[in-house]
């Protein structure tokens, strides 16, 4: 019987290959009702495929940039609120998928920051968006990424209908 002992180099190469092939599902955190279904779908999909979830929140630029102190204070408060929101949603992801997600706080226009993050992070392989239940208003990200920006993202976009129950999402993922 021949046993092969893996070298440290082959173990690193194996771990590197595994990380490179692991899907990362990006969810953009906001206060929309449809974000809940995107979060649930990404968490279940990651669990079922051995992937990971990444959460991104974008902090819009403040209107008070000309008043440095006020602008800095508002930016700090917005960042604290964003980080708290990410932590709450990260706990929900962990409860569903069993894994802690990657967290990204960005400053600037949300759509522009999604494009920048996807281009900067090669591990991100799918963007998951929830679609609003109102057919006239699917949500700002869905509207933008299926309209003017359609086809410009380097990863596929998964659209999850906003009216699905947790059981329906679990069955799909």
Which descriptors would you attach to this protein?
single chain, 173 residues, alpha/beta, Rossmann fold, 5-stranded parallel beta sheet, 6 helices, 48% helix, 18% strand
**Total strands:** 5
Work out the count of structural domains: 1
Relative strand content:
15-25%
Which CATH first-tier class would you pick?
Answer: Alpha Beta
Largest sheet features: 5 strands, parallel
The low-pLDDT segments are 1-8, 10-20
Assign the CATH architecture: 3-Layer(aba) Sandwich
Order of strands across the main sheet: 3-2-1-4-5
Overall mean pLDDT stands at 85
Decide which structural class fits the backbone: alpha/beta
What's the order of the H and E elements?
A: HEHEHEHEHEH
Tell me the overall shape. Answer: globular
As a whole number of angstroms, the C-alpha radius of gyration is 19 Å
Helix content: 40-55%
Q: Tell me the distance between the termini.
A: 42 Å
Discrete helix count: 6
**Fourth-level CATH superfamily:** HUPs
Pfam family, one: Usp
Protein name: Conserved hypothetical cytosolic protein
Helix-strand layout with pairing:
Layout: H1 8-21, E1 24-28, H2 35-49, E2 52-59, H3 68-97, E3 102-107, H4 110-120, E4 124-131, H5 140-145, E5 157-161, H6 166-172
Parallel strand pairs: 1-2, 1-4, 2-3, 4-5
Describe it for me?
Pfam families: Usp (PF00582). This is Conserved hypothetical cytosolic protein. It comes from Rhodospirillum rubrum (strain ATCC 11170 / ATH 1.1.1 / DSM 467 / LMG 4362 / NCIMB 8255 / S1). By secondary structure, the chain is of the alpha/beta class. It has a single domain, classed as HUPs (Rossmann fold, 3-Layer(aba) Sandwich), CATH 3.40.50.620. It has six helices and five strands; from the N terminus they run αβαβαβαβαβα. α2 packs across α3 and α2 runs parallel beside α6. It is globular and about 50 Å long.
